[in-house]
Amino acid sequence: MHKNTFYEINMKMIHLIQQTIRPALISIVFGVSLLAEPSIAAEFDYPKPHKSDQTDDYFGTQVADPYRWMETNGTPELEQWIAEENTLTQGYLENIPFRDALREQLTDTINYPKHSLPWSRGGRLFYSRNDGLQNQSVLYVIDNPGDEPRVLIDPNTLSEDGTVSLQRTAVSRDGRYLAYSIARSGSDWNEINVLSVATGEPLADHLMWVKFSGIAWQGDGFYYSRYDEPPDGEMLTAKNEYHKIFFHKLGSDQADDVLVHENRDFPLRNMGASTDKDERFLFVHESESTYGNSLMFRDLSQPDAKFVTVVPTFDSEQDVVTVLDGRFYVLTDRKASNKRLVLVDPQNPQEEHWVDVIPESDSLLKSVQCIGGLFVVTYLKDAADVAFVYDRTGKRLREIELPTIGVTSFSGEKDQAEYFQSFTSFTYPTVIYRCNIETGDRVRMFPPAIAVSPDDFVTERVWYTNSDGRKVPIFVTYKKGLQKDGSNPTLLYGYGGFNISMSPSFSALRLPFLENGGIYAVAVLRGGGEYGETWHKSGTKLQKQNVFDDLIAAAEFLIAEKYTSPQKLAVQGGSNGGLLVGAVVTQRPDLFKAGVAAVGVLDMLRYHKFTIGWAWATDYGTSEDDAEMFQYLMSYSPLHNVRTGVNYPALLVTTSDHDDRVVPAHSFKFTATMQEKSTSDNPVYIRVETKAGHGAGKPISKVIDESTDVWAFLMQQLGMTPSHDL
To answer: What percent of the chain has pLDDT over 90?
Structure first.
């Protein structure tokens, strides 16, 4: 969707699956009590897939890969195995006595209006709204102040089952046209279409094979990024190579699009393009992984102007915030782990000529936006936001008050005083304000949508000692009156990678757990972005074990402080967080009763061979780098560290058939191996969703189904007894 800073570093491709199934806080009434789970070890009847004699040689070490055949989608044997596994999993879930009541309550809980942060362009106001149970949110436009909003795009009309989702939108400078991308069944592949904003009528323009792309308008067309069409049958698995930037002129065929930038010498690079609001400058960045980008620009006001390089390397990140008086304001972590805002003169753009506007500080400079000629600045301080208004010289003018510990976002234009703000936290549903940058006044835009009282709950930011001896925060949320006696069912969530921060968030799907005495804990781990790039790098490559050690330390803290006990503690994570779950349950199975690994990276020796996996190498390294890197990956790769005879926690592995970010073969191979080797009384199940991807754009109906199954599994395993009297 719309970004307020026009330059998008879209290589943050690994996103948090928890955004899809993040659970939250409203009342729930169950019609039945949870029965104690019987011992079911003797009842396991896992499918028995065949094992091949596939082995690979890594620097003289032979590594077996008997389930390699599961990497090939669509084979009859794989389809049969998936069907058998789903039947087994659903059979278990159907026998959980409170599952149906849980589904009903989750449906009621999530059924309230939700609004996106509004944004303006071409004199019009745009925002998304979901009435409650719509599979996809609807894009609205308000043409003039005081007008009623009207529907511009309703993605629910694009498919019968809600599996076509709206991804990105961009309005032309004059406000006449909207270019938008859609995704089908959760795939990262996008299609771009164009419509008239005034009438809503579609234009003939239709672009295919778009991936990891923004939409940057300039005049009568826009810049976008795409790959070549993949081979037949390999759309969801083939390695993505030779990303290119094209310019598409409205009314033309895609075959006539103009190639603007490519790099044939480096097939494993991604390209992104953006323009400033005035459409004078084209900015292009290249990236080799999920961190770091080069930056160059072209002055579009000069005929035949060449690209000029600002940063030639990939060892820092640059985000162009705005252009004022022909000069660029750039947010960068170059020689500043916690980032700084610098002024770049296009006549002398080299680093030695940069001027600090907002220097680096002790807190991470999370974002900067130019609104009404001033800067709205957000810092991340101990994993939660604080916000201020600065002038163009870097002088702090005032703080923007936030309701409690949480996260805030802003949208606005550099030449308009009016802007918009959102705020959310663990027990604080998202609120949206209409604000004035000059006066500081703000009013709430939409009426309260959900009846949650933050006073009924407690959110603590407590401090555990990580494996490096540093005090690090954990957010711990629970219902008031809870006793810290070691008996509380607790879910520990973590991520720890790709410079992504774990900050407070709200979801209306967490209450069944919290209302019934559960504790929801989110740990800050190395590898994330909470304390800048130095913190991120301390959890990458040959230091990746730090992430797992931190999560283990967080779990031990919760136990030592009597929040919970090993028999009442579960762990959950998605994507890179799925790797985290796989690693900690294979390394410290004694710490957890249960784990949920969602769309996880679980085969660390082969992850880079599929789709965009190669871009994760700056965090992970690859098994082909050298013998040391191979041995390190082998030492924690969840797939390769499953042992026979270990009492593993109960596991639920979740994935989707259209996940072309982290291909489902990771989950297939790990599940088959765990089922083969586990002698535990705890079950190992896999849930394979159809017509869904890595998480983005998943329809509400599937979100409810998945959330029901995940929470039913966790609550059952943790011995929770839902109350009749909530």
So the answer is: 82
